[in-house]
Amino acid sequence: MLEIRDLCYEVDEADRTLGILQGISLTIPEHKFVVVTGPNGGGKTTLAKAIMGIVEPTGGQILWNGQDVTHMSITDRARLGISYGFQQPPRFKGLRVRDLLSMAAGNDNMTRDEACQYLTRVGLCAKDYIDREVDTSLSGGEVKRIEIATILARKSGLMIFDEPEAGIDLWSFARLTETFRDIHDRRDATLIVISHQERIIDLADEIIMISGGKIAKQGPKDQIFPEILANTISGCSYLTEGAKA
Ligand SMILES: Nc1ncnc2c1ncn2[C@@H]1O[C@H](COP(=O)(O)OP(=O)(O)OP(=O)(O)O)[C@@H](O)[C@H]1O
């Protein structure tokens, strides 16, 4: 279970303090599928990075399975089973896709078949990629899918994906949503997916909407999603005027 208590992240700018996360509290039980959504700049990525330890909160607490991880290193959190897929994943010149998958799985003897299975789950044709270097020769969507495959290989208890849909074509996206559904159905992990995509939101048990560094809405998908859709359209004068015309 993930528990976040009154989490704050403040940044000092020249003449002011920015409250990027302003007292976020939430509880995500084991094996839930939670989608975090909300307007650009609301604080979603910062929250995810705070859970992974990439950003150090200035206040509050993060507990994973009862253990306080608030100030723990990224490596220690990874050992506890927390993993995070970046919105824009890094590249690793000199490392092949199969090396990355082996490292993620902690298995030096990963077979070609096993590596291929992870790549297939993110819509990549394994034979074309397994020996490629994870460098700038790969497209943004390819690197993104390879990174997601490494998270699957890691078999973490808490998987956080930051806009996994970004830059991914329709066919691979369909494969990816099936993979998320599969992880959830098999109760393999707790999933937190930051997304604006209706098809991903539709898979969620619960939706958390973050805006202005705070939780603006939270609840079961069937309750929250219609509210978000209604607010999104009514909050935009162009769309509402268009609807009246
Ligand atoms: N270190 C920092 N210094 C100054 N501002 C920051 C810092 N980190 C984040 N921000 C600002 O905090 C806000 C929240 O950023 P964050 O990336 O968490 O938003 P987001 O909800 O993930 O947005 P998006 O949907 O566009 O990815 C943004 O306005 C961002 O510019």
From TrEMBL:
The keyword Transcription does not apply. SUPFAM superfamilies: P-loop containing nucleoside triphosphate hydrolases. It holds the Pfam family ABC_tran. Residues 2-237 form the ABC transporter domain. Keywords: ATP-binding, Nucleotide-binding, Transport. Belongs to the ABC transporter superfamily. This is ATP-binding cassette domain-containing protein. The lineage of its organism: Bacteria, Bacillati, Bacillota, Clostridia, Eubacteriales.
